[in-house]
Amino acid sequence: MSDGFFNVFSRRAGLSAVVSVLLVVVFGSLVRAPTFSGSMVNDIIDGNSEMLAAAEISAARGNRESVMLIVGPGDISVGAAFDELRALEDSFATAGIDATFGSLDSLRDQLFVFGLTPESRLSELLSALRSDVSGATLVSRDGTLFATVVTVHSSDEARAVALLRSFPFSSALSSNDVLAAVALEQDVAAGLRDDLALLIPAIVLVMLLTLLLAFRHWRAVLLPAFASLASATVVFSLLTLTGISINLVTLLALPIVLIVALANSCHFLAKSAKVRDQGLSLDEVVAVSMRRVATPYLVSCVTTAVALLSLAFNEITPIRDLGVLSAASLVVSFVLVFLFAPWALHWHMSAIDPGAQRSVSYRRASRWVHKKRNSISLVLVALAFASALTVPGVAVRSDARLFFPDDAAFTEAFRAFESRFYVFSPLRVLVRPDESLAQLDALRIAGAVRDRLRDDDAALLVGLEPAAVGSGFVITAVVETEDAAARLATMLKGIQRQGSFDAELVISSAQLVYESIDRQALASLAQSLSFSVVIIFGAIALLFRSARAVLASLVANAVPLLMVFGAVWLVGDPLNLVTAFVFLVALGVIVDDTIHILYRHHGGEEIAGSSIEFSVVLSTIMLCLGLLLCQLSDFPTTRLFALYCALALTGAVVSDLTLLPALLRYRGFRQSTRSSQ
């Protein structure tokens, strides 16, 4: 962009600010209440083989879902407890919900299951229990809990959950906790709403207070405050326009856009304060500041947006939505901040005296870092090398429980169930015979599959039922861990490959579904990271026309990302569907500072003690404080994502201020003859 453009632009600051505010108002008028899509399972693509298998088995079972109700009879007789449950069954019938009841009682070393056919009444179960003296005595004597399974059609699940939660249980039952997919969806959506309502205002407030302390004048917060408002407004308006729903993945678009806009607000403020010391007029201060900040801001914004847009070709819907939403929001928010910045800088600089000094502590720290730059660079390289060795040991594996909000009703019910009963991870198998195969032959094959599962100690309970829809049989194996379910599934697939059965086995479990999603997410991450590297560093090569600049920035940005791998390996927890995207998000954010530093260095400005150093440090502190506030989130995935992002940003600022300049000075980085103003 030419100097004349910025000179004219700075003299029309009021007009451009009015245009910017009007655009924000227009975008704000488009905002509607967003849709929350909960646990995202329904948003996964139709082409996911494991999801298709789960859907096929669910269809074969007549789309009937199980809602778990935990009740504790305590010292009350078994009969009193089941009288209460009979009243519950009558309530279901009155509500027009076709439900079947089964009951399960568990000790840590034994498992008793009492099943009902769809035509049975709950009273028949009561009679069966009373006739089984050992079973009734066992339950009554030890006061163990019943887990009553209420099975309904998927279309009735929401009404069933509402009825269970509103049913007036008496003191005969000591607890009643509902476990159901629809309950999880409701709790996740509520948790996301709570996070937005609490965290976003808190994060923005902390960031603005940090800026106020750094610049020591309340007018300094105007531009960052506008950037925050504009970014959030753009994201929510585009959510409305595109119909994209909010979930744990698409929610990342908001912090991405906020972080970039707030960080560049720091660059504008820091540069204008530095230029103000040179005794220029306000118009000249604004023009120079805009020229020195807006160009790298535009380059970093566009390259990051294009890199994120590569996610639009992903097969997983939430990831695709994240790419489209964040890319569009980044570009629009840049335009809004760019239009508002000249007037905000005018207004801020008019109240600031030239020659204002930064704190003594900061200047001392800057000089110390400058002296120790080579030593710090060597330490960073050593850490990066050690972290690179851990990359093969870092796995991407989602634990479904990490996507549950901590204090939600579903999570509390799940923990209660998990602590009192076996950890159930059902493995389901649809034995689908060939059309030429007789029904008895299909039953023989299904029985053989059931026997194979029963022979394995990992299967605590194996049940067999005819498919409610279509031909074949559905086998459900209850296992204690997700790993055991995955192992049994692998065993069955191996048997099928060997040709031991004359029927197709459709196998599904929660762990298999998440493993498939993780594989897609990992492939998507690798593809998008590769595309991002090509786009971002290709733009750096075109902008600075220096292979050394590209190599230096590649190394400097690889260091913090490798450090995250090392941290994940040290913690010992695998990455998951959400935290795996730390690397893509972090790269898009940290390269912003890299481009600003390269632009200043290319213009001949010394980085140590400069405005760019101050703004990079300040923006990193500000952003890390905001990210650390995310530890208040109810979602473990959000907390981990924020923690890893904060680590990446911290490593990036150290790398950009020590390793990057050292690499640029190595044999000389081509300098421009322009003076930095």
- Percent of residues in helices comes to 55-70%
Number of helices in the DSSP assignment: 22
Described by strand count, sense and barrel closure, the largest sheet is: 5 strands, antiparallel
Report the average pLDDT across residues.
80
Major sheet: order of its strands? 3-2-4-1-5
Our estimate of the beta-strand percent is 5-15%
**End-to-end separation:** 16 Å
Label the overall shape.
elongated
Q: Helix/strand/pairing class, anyone?
A: alpha+beta
Radius of gyration: 30 Å
Low-confidence stretches: 132-143, 668-677
Number of strand elements: 9
Secondary structure: elements and pairs:
Elements: H1 3-11, H2 13-30, H3 49-60, E1 64-71, H4 78-94, E2 99-106, E3 111-114, H5 122-131, H6 133-142, E4 146-153, H7 157-166, E5 176-179, H8 181-215, H9 222-242, H10 253-276, H11 282-309, H12 317-349, H13 360-371, H14 373-390, H15 409-420, E6 427-433, H16 439-454, E7 459-466, E8 473-479, H17 482-497, E9 503-508, H18 510-544, H19 547-571, H20 582-602, H21 611-629, H22 636-665
Antiparallel strand pairs: 1-4, 1-5, 2-3, 2-4, 6-8, 6-9, 7-8
Helix pairs in contact: 1-11, 2-9, 2-12, 4-5, 8-21, 9-10, 9-12, 10-11, 10-12, 10-20, 10-21, 11-12, 11-18, 11-20, 14-19, 14-22, 18-19, 18-20, 19-20, 19-22, 20-22, 21-22
Give a quick summary of the entry:
The protein is of the alpha+beta class and 677 residues long. The chain is built from 22 helices and 9 strands.
Explain this structure.
By secondary structure, the chain is α+β, with helices and mostly antiparallel strands. Helix content is 64%, strand content 9%. It is built from 22 helices and nine strands. The protein has helices at 3-11, 13-30, 49-60, 78-94, 122-131, 133-142, 157-166, 181-215, 222-242, 253-276, 282-309, 317-349, 360-371, 373-390, 409-420, 439-454, 482-497, 510-544, 547-571, 582-602, 611-629, 636-665; strands at residues 64-71, 99-106, 111-114, 146-153, 176-179, 427-433, 459-466, 473-479, 503-508. The chain has a five-stranded antiparallel β-sheet. A hairpin with a 4-residue loop joins strand 2 and strand 3. Helix 9 (222-242) runs antiparallel to helix 12 (317-349) and helix 19 (547-571) runs antiparallel to helix 20 (582-602). The longest helix is centred in the N-terminal third of the chain and has 35 residues, at 181-215. The relative contact order is 0.12.
